[in-house]
Specification:
two-stranded antiparallel sheet, 40% helix, 8-stranded parallel β-barrel, alpha/beta, binds flavin-adenine dinucleotide, 11 helices
Length: 326
C-alpha cells in the first residue's frame, strides 16, 4: 500500500519527524509553454511509491528574444518559456497530497510582486518555499535586480520572515495576518560560480541562515567528499540547519561537459572516463544510475536528512535509483 505523507507539513518538520531516517524528495520543472500538465504527472507518478516527503517546482523567469517583424525589423520581446510554477504546486498538493515547494526568485520581481506571489501561495495552503536569487539574464553580464527588487537571496529571505511576522510592505494594514512559510535556501559545495572564494560564499550562506532560512539544499555534486567537506565547513562557522544533498543522475554524454560549465562543479575523472567509454546514451544513463546509487548509499550511511533528486521531470532514472536505495 502507498503511504501518503501528511499534507501541509513544513520541510523542517518532515526532517524532524523522520527521526534520522533519510527522506526522499525531488525537483521537477514546469513544462514548456503550450504543453499540458500530464507530462508533469508522468514525471511524478512512478516516484510516488517511494513516498516523497516534498516535491520542488522550479521557477523560470522571462528571457529576451528577438522576433522578426515586417520589413526585416527585429523586436525584442520578453518570453516566459516555462510558466506555471504556482499552479503546478497547487495541483501536486491536491492530486498527490504531497507537500509542494515552489522556488521563488529575486530576478524579475519587485518587492510588491514578491509579496503578491507569497500571498497567492499562502491562500493555496502552500507553506514551503525555496528562496533564490535566480541567475542573470543571458543578455546581462551580471545579475541585475528589478527596480525595488532584491539583489540577493538573503533579502528575499528577510522579506518572507517579515511576512511570517505579519509585517507587510504597506504599514497601515488593520490586523494583518501572519504567513507561516518554511524557508529553504541554496548552498554550493563547490562554490557558487560568481563567488570570489569558497569562504566568502559560505559567509553569505550563513547570512541567509541567520536571516531565518530553515534548511539548505545543495547544488548537484558527483563527488560525495565535496558535500562532506562543505557540511563540515558550514558547521565550523555555525550553520546548524539541515543540509539536504542534491543528486542528479547523469543522463547523456554531453552533460559531462555542460554540467561542470553551467553549475561550476567537477565530475570525478574515473566517472568521466567510464562514461566516455559508453557506446550510447542508454549506457551513459545506466552508468549514471549506478553512480547515483553509490552516492546515495554513502550519503545515507552518513545520516543525511534527505536525498533530493534533480529529475528534470523525468522519473525513470530516479525511480531506478530509489528502487535500490529506499
Ligand atoms: P545568493 O545566495 O544571493 O548568492 C548569489 C551570489 O552572490 C553568490 O556568489 C554569493 O556568494 C553572492 N552573495 C550573496 N549575498 C551577498 C551579499 N550580501 N553581498 C555580496 N555578494 C553576495 N534558479 C532559478 O532561476 N530558478 C530556480 O527554480 C532555481 N532553483 C534552484 C535550486 C537549487 C537547489 C539551486 C542550488 C539553485 C537553483 N537556481 C534556480 C539557481 C540559482 O538561482 C542560481 O545559482 C543563482 O545564481 C544564485 O542563487 P542563490 O539563491 O544561491 O543566490
Amino acid at each position: 500500500t502507498i503511504q501518503y505523507t501528511i499534507l501541509k507539513m513544513k520541510v523542517a518538520q518532515h526532517i524532524e519527524n523522520a527521526n534520522g531516517k533519510p527522506l526522499f524528495s525531488f525537483e521537477i520543472l514546469p513544462p514548456l509553454r503550450g504543453k499540458g500538465i500530464q507530462g508533469i504527472y508522468d514525471g511524478i507518478d512512478p516516484l510516488i511509491e517511494f513516498n516523497p516527503s516534498f516535491i520542488n517546482v522550479t521557477y523560470h523567469r522571462e528571457e529576451y528574444v528577438y522576433k522578426k517583424r515586417e520589413k526585416g525589423f527585429l523586436e525584442k520581446v520578453a518570453v516566459k518559456k516555462r510558466p506555471g510554477t504556482v499552479g503546478i504546486c497547487a495541483a501536486i498538493q491536491y492530486k498527490y497530497k504531497v507537500d509542494a515547494v515552489p522556488h521563488i526568485i529575486c530576478g524579475g520581481f519587485s518587492k510588491e510582486e514578491t509579496e503578491n506571489a507569497l500571498i497567492d501561495l499562502y491562500f493555496l495552503g502552500i507553506d514551503n518555499v525555496l528562496a533564490l536569487r535566480g541567475d542573470s539574464l543571458k543578455t546581462e553580464s551580471s545579475f541585475t535586480p528589478e527596480p525595488n527588487g532584491h539583489a540577493y537571496a538573503v533579502d528575499l529571505v528577510k522579506q518572507i520572515v517579515e511576512l511570517n511576522k505579519g509585517k507587510y510592505l504597506e504599514e497601515d494594514l488593520k490586523n494583518p495576518i501572519a504567513t507561516n512559510f518554511c524557508i529553504g535556501v541554496a548552498g554550493y559545495p563547490e562554490k557558487h560560480i560568481d563567488a570570489v572564494s569558497f569562504d566568502q560564499d559560505l559567509k553569505y550562506l550563513k547570512q541567509k541562515v541567520d536571516a531565518g532560512a530553515d534548511y539548505i539544499v545543495t547544488q548537484m555534486f558527483f563527488d560525495n567528499s565535496k558535500y562532506f567537506d562543505f557540511v563540515q565547513k558550514c558547521r565550523e562557522i555555525g550553520i546548524n540547519v539541515p543540509i539536504i544533498p542534491g543528486l542528479k543522475p547523469l543522463a547523456t554524454e554531453r552533460q559531462l561537459d555542460i554540467l561542470p560549465e553551467i553549475f561550476h562543479l567537477e565530475i570525478p575523472s574515473d566517472f568521466v572516463a567510464e562514461a566516455r567509454k559508453c557506446s550510447n546514451n542508454a549506457a551513459v544513463k545506466q552508468l549514471g544510475i549506478e553512480w547515483a546509487v553509490q552516492q546515495g548509499k554513502e550519503l545515507i550511511q552518513a545520516n543525511v536528512p534527505a536525498l533530493h533528486f534533480y529529475t528534470m521531470s523525468k522519473a525513470k532514472a530516479t525511480a531506478a535509483i530509489c528502487m535500490q536505495i529506499f
